[in-house]
Task: inverse folding
């Protein structure tokens, strides 16, 4: 029997607090403009362009290929990975909360970026603007294995961080609307999928907002991780420095990329986030990048050990 039916659908939907907050009449400012964004999700039929790039890749590439992997940063948790063969995958495009409950995080909309694939780790507003990129494919919260051209992706189902480690007790807001943030009875918006992306001989883990302590079976399924992305900022909104450092120690990646922090190019102070400067500067090996683009080749990474690569406010905006 499918036990996913939601007795609270009218007041607290699977998408969570938004429905609950609106039902409680708790929202006023921001609701109108936000609602338009929410309605815009099924807009693929209006996209310019077509799938020619994917058709070409389908014909030309059937196995792993060597060469550089490109990682572009679009602010917050939004990263685009481009394989050596040219397949592009964008993770976690952001938007403002359509209900208005969480306030304004971004002064602009996510750029209308052209990509082959868009993916989202979970159904929070700062990760799920899948209607903004112009994508040939959308893989929303994909669990399991997927492969195409010279890329394979494994989606690992787990749970969102459910205890705020920093000064802003945002998880208390869920309790105020009657939700248990933590599993096993968490609402659907606190479900998470982490992605292990393998291309060009490099395995990248998209952590999303996952909890710091997944079960052993999930750790085991990650396998070797070469590039680790982690949501850590100075306010310790999702993960604390201590939790992040423990994850880095456990996975021993060659490269660590901070995400989910305040950057001047895309994010507002109203988000309550802070920069990741302090955390990065506490690491034994780090580089502050001066561009939004990082190119990595497996052949050059053999001797790398937990080297932080920090995009700061270098962000692609178009
Ligand atoms: Fe989240
Ligand atoms: Fe988030």
Result:
């Amino acid at each position: 029997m499918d036990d996913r039916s939601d007795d609270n659908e009218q007041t607290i939907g699977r998408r969570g607090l938004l429905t609950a907050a609106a039902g409680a009449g708790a929202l006023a400012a921001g609701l109108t403009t936000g609602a338009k964004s929410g309605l815009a999700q099924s807009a693929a039929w209006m996209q310019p362009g077509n799938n020619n790039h994917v058709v070409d890749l389908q014909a030309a590439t059937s196995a792993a290929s060597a060469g550089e992997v490109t990682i572009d940063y679009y602010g917050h948790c939004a990263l685009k990975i481009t394989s050596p063969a040219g397949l592009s995958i964008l993770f976690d495009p952001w938007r403002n909360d359509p209900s208005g409950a969480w306030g304004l995080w971004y002064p602009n909309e996510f750029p209308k970026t052209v990509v082959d694939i868009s993916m989202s780790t979970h159904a929070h507003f700062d990760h799920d603007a899948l209607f903004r990129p112009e994508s040939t494919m959308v893989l929303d919260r994909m669990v399991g294995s997927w492969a195409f051209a010279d890329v394979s992706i494994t989606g690992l189902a787990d749970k969102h961080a459910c205890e705020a480690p920093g000064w802003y007790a945002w998880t208390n807001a869920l309790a105020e609307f009657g939700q248990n943030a933590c599993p096993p009875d968490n609402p659907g918006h606190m479900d998470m999928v982490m992605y292990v992306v393998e291309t060009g001989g490099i395995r990248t883990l998209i952590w999303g907002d996952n909890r710091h302590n997944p079960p052993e079976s999930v750790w085991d399924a990650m396998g070797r991780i070469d590039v680790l992305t982690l949501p850590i900022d100075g306010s310790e909104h999702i993960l604390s420095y201590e939790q992040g450092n423990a994850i880095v120690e456990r996975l021993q990646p060659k490269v660590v990329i901070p995400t989910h922090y305040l950057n001047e190019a895309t994010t507002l102070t109203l988000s309550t986030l802070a920069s990741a400067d302090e955390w990065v500067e506490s690491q034994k090996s780090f580089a502050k990048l001066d561009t939004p683009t990082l190119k990595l080749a497996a052949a050059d990474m053999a001797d790398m050990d937990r080297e932080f690569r920090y995009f700061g406010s270098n962000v692609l905006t178009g």
User: Anything to note?
Assistant: The two ends are 46 Å apart (CA to CA). The domain at 17-41+64-310 is CATH 3.60.15.10 (Metallo-beta-lactamase; Chain A). The first strand starts at residue 69 and ends at 73. The CA atoms of residues 20 and 177 lie 7 Å apart.
